[in-house]
Design a protein that fits this description.
Layout: H1 2-29, H2 32-58, H3 73-101, H4 109-137, H5 140-169, H6 173-201, H7 207-220, E1 227-236, E2 239-248, H8 254-271, E3 276-284, H9 313-316
Parallel strand pairs: 2-3
Antiparallel strand pairs: 1-2
Helix pairs in contact: 1-2, 1-4, 2-3, 2-5, 2-6, 3-5, 3-6, 4-5, 5-6
């Protein structure tokens, strides 16, 4: 985690330097489009500080007050960043609309273009690095920071296009139109980040993640695992907390059941890139389970095997034993 904290510190320092360059470009050109870029840089810096603190807090070990760790702070960090981006988008959109009716004289557009190109390129490179490392660490904070910087770079690209058109046509209205378009783009980016943050705080199911784990379990399940249900995954930062019910032969003693649970746990941990904690409740099989049980050497079988139930996202999430009727 320390290397990700160092990476965020580098991104923060770079962000402060880029913010200074963008405000210099705005001061030289008096361009509203460049001002939108400069204003968003303030958001980058403020969000960068919060992201840095979040990474530091998320790295702290569990304690008595936080038995599941401090990972949830990453969702708050992403939500805070999204709210800041949303506010910047509203401000930019409003100022662009105001200046359509109250235009300002622009100058030194060529220099503004050059500075915007430099800052946009650096932002894109930094955002690409943060997002890549964030996905590797499964850190929502780093991913959000990376997406933010990349969206800033895309905005800069749009500004460059708009300013180039303005430079060659002399139509000052283009400056405010471009600012308004990218103000709207920034606003939508903020909304998406806030939505993802709320989803994480509310423990919304990650369908792709759960489906990926379930497909692996279906492919590698041994005959002793008669049924898995009430399967749930909760994310605390980079850590996954998984709990489920595992149905085993009723005559297994404690040591045998523990061995199967350990095998289940090792299989899931080996498959997932993120740290995993599992809480597995063992259920004994019942006579009705015989219809679905794949165990060929069962000494207590009371009914013949009728059907193999394929474990899927839909049926493994239910708090209900599988059956021939329901699947």
């Amino acid at each position: 985690m320390r290397k990700y904290i160092r990476l965020q510190i580098i991104a923060l320092v770079v962000g402060i330097g880029l913010m200074a360059l963008k405000f210099l470009a705005w001061w030289l050109t008096n361009s509203n489009a460049i001002l939108t870029d400069a204003l968003e840089s303030i958001i980058n810096v403020v969000a960068g500080f919060f992201a840095l603190y979040s990474l530091y807090l998320a790295a702290k070990p569990k304690d008595e007050n936080h038995p599941y760790g401090h990972g949830k702070i990453e969702f708050l960090s992403a939500g805070f960043e999204g709210a800041m981006i949303f506010f910047a988008g509203i401000t930019i959109f409003g100022k662009a609309g105001y200046n359509i009716f109250n235009p300002q004289e622009l100058h030194q557009i060529d220099l503004g273009l050059l500075l915007t190109l430099i800052t946009g390129s650096i932002n894109f490179l930094m955002g690409k690095i943060l997002e890549k490392q964030g996905r590797k660490a499964d850190s929502m904070t780093l991913i959000a920071s990376g997406k933010h910087l990349k969206s800033d770079a895309y905005s800069s690209l749009g500004l460059i296009i708009g300013l180039a058109l303005l430079y060659f046509t002399g139509i000052t209205l283009l400056d405010n139109l471009v600012a308004g378009i990218f103000g709207l783009f920034i606003l939508i980016t903020g909304l998406r980040l806030m939505r993802n943050s709320v989803a994480g705080i509310m423990d919304e199911a990650d369908h792709l993640l759960v489906d990926n784990i379930v497909k692996m379990l279906e492919e590698k399940r041994p005959d002793n695992w008669i049924d898995v249900h009430n399967f749930r995954v909760i994310k605390y930062g980079a850590t996954l907390h998984i709990d489920c019910h595992l149905t085993l032969p009723w005559y297994y003693d404690t040591r045998q059941s523990h061995s199967e649970v350990k095998a289940f746990e090792n299989l899931v941990k080996a498959h997932c890139k993120s740290p995993v904690e599992l809480f597995i409740h063992v259920d004994p099989c019942e006579p009705v389970s015989c219809h679905l049980c794949l165990k060929k050497d069962c000494p207590q079988r009371q009914h013949p095997h009728e059907q193999r139930i394929t474990w899927t996202y839909t049926n493994i999430m239910r708090d209900l034993n599988h059956s021939v009727v329901t699947g």
